[in-house]
Amino acid sequence: MKLHQTKSKRKRGVVLTPTGLQRLQEAILAWEILENKGDRLTLEELSRQINISAKTLSRLWSLSASIDQKTLKLCFSAFNLEINEEDYTLLNQENETEISGFLSESSSIQVENHWSYPNGAVPLDSPFYVERPPIEELVYQQVTQTGCVIRIRAPRQMGKTSLVLRVCAFAKTQKYHTVHIKCSQIDSQCFTDLNKLLRCLCWQIAKQLGININLDELWDEEVGCKLSCSLYLQNYILKQSNSPIVLVLSDVDRFFEYPHIAGDFFALLRSWCEEARQNHNWHKLRLVVVYSTEHYISPDINHSPFNIGLPIRLHEFTQQQVEDLARRYGLQWTDGKESAKLRSVVGGHPALIQLALYYLSSGTMTLGELIQEAITNGGIYRHHLQQHWVKLQANPNLVRVYTKLVAANQSVVIDPIDAYKLESLGLIDFEGDRIVPRCELYRAYFSKHFSTMV
């Protein structure tokens, strides 16, 4: 039969091209804006959305490992995309390891010059993590200290999660246990009641440590939820551990939206910090608190965890750091020239810098084209900007405040609560007493969009 005569002896897979990767990433970003309130999907969430494994997704993003054609079509159809011929190329699976020399059918650019699309935290094995001395050395040294508290503060997409990944990796080299709780992932209903919240917290700690949770038996309603929580940690979790436990609490700013429980929760954290320094039973606890802004914080200084421990503030990349990162992407830049042009538009914003270098290294556009498109219509940053736009529109008062800010040529007085919200989004910066848009890209884009609302 013809079917048997034409059957290939080699199993053929497909590799995503840079064009296909760009189309798929843009479709995912559009879906996140429309369907996910602008929040980015993690690799695991994306895996569930498409119904393929995270390992397969990693192969797809690499642009160097093949997957079968049906899986590729599934990835595209999940985000309402029709797959085109220029989105992929056929590859003999036995030649997969030789992909670094392969030339895409739709481009003369070598695949080996393309890197994974920058999305979220910088992986531990990535060559594109930019150290900001002496921060890494400080946190590594501090996490080994009995009863340490580390406070990492920076707006969104400034590198907090990337640093936390490295803190946890270092802790594991010291044979410590690590627990990372992302407060943004806790159900809203848990924030309605402190008892629910603390039980949820204890459940996650035990689960991540692989300890039998046993909450109902150990939780004593008679003594109150705060004491029950503390006793659970001291007499059950810490007592079972032979090594220190690094407890990372990310996105703790979320508590600021729930003032009826924020005060009690932060006071409890403060008490753990003090116990860890004074009480032998708590010596194994290392606490890392991660947040975007503290301008909305006004708790009693004697009951706050935000004025103790090692404060770490992540700032934007310097010009030297941008040029170093450009070299890692294989770009041959003149010292002080191209980096200055890029920073004049996006400042040293880590996420925006990474995205620009990714596209420039692919050869799909020049720096001049990137800057021109970014200023006129958002260009490669349009989805990043649309995410901010969606979040701003959800709060009409913030729209009014930011409208005044982007149009002002001098200092504007802003309510502290509005400043907290805008800084946590990463939309503003502080120059002395002045509050200004974080970068020229934001000023240009939002000035244009605000003008259409008049």
From TrEMBL:
Gene3D superfamilies, per the entry: P-loop containing nucleotide triphosphate hydrolases (3.40.50.300)
Domain HTH cro/C1-type: from-to ranges: 41-86
Pfam families, sorted: AAA_35
Protein name: AAA-like domain-containing protein
